Every structure is written in C-alpha cells, then in structure tokens.
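DEPOSITED CHAIN:
***
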Amino acid sequence: MKKQQWHRRTLWILLATLLVGCGDGGEAVVKRRNVLGSLAKAYMDFGVVNQRSPSSTSELIEHMRAQPSASEEELEAASGLEEGDIVMNWDGDLSKTAENGLYVLGFEAGVPGSGGYVVMADGMVQLMTRQDFSEARMVPEVESE
C-alpha cells in the first residue's frame, strides 16, 4: 500500500511540475507574441498619424512613448526594439491592405538564424522556422516619388 501511495504522490508531483513548466513557457510565448503585435499596431498607428510609415527605430519609439495611454506592454515592446531584440522593416508600404498578410513587417532578432516569431504587415503574429523565414518576403519599401 505504501508503495502505491508513493507512486501516486510521485505522479502528482511530476504532473504539477510539468503544468507549472508549461504555464511559464506559455506565458513567455504570449508575451513574445504580444510584443510583436504591439509594435505592428504602433507602426500602423504611426502611419495614420503621420501619413507615412516610420523610417527608424527612434522615430517609432518616440511615437510609442508619446502616447498618453501607452500600456506597460507597449513600453516594454519599445524597449525590446531599442535594445535590438526586435527588427522592423522601415518605410514599409502598407497601402495594399489585401496583400499585407504576405509580408513580414518585423521579427525577433534570432529568427534568421534559428526561427521564431514574426509579425506580418497585417498585424498577425506567426511562428516561422529558419527556412520559412529565408523564403518569406519582407514588406516592400514605399517607392520614392
């Protein structure tokens, strides 16, 4: 009987450990996805306000930090961009809205080497392998007039 109790107890401890571990990983994934989503939203909002896409990291960060209702998550996204954890494609042409889901707007810095999360020009975040990313199309730049 004691041996059976020990097995049950061990099983419950193992299960609890796995669930806690999955929870942490799940939260980290949600956070990574939300950071990219926040940056895409800010990029698009910048375009609405300024009638053009942002052309640099500093320009987008300044815009994000100037928002009176900026959430902690949005400010964290700005910091990730500033620190080089996220790469954005500047001067993106977002005028062809029906096609924006075909183009990468931004990505985690490690994606080219090992895969990871990217945000498309329509704001959708998705996971790409290194191979997928190497074949993906970046958002085209606005044509100079």
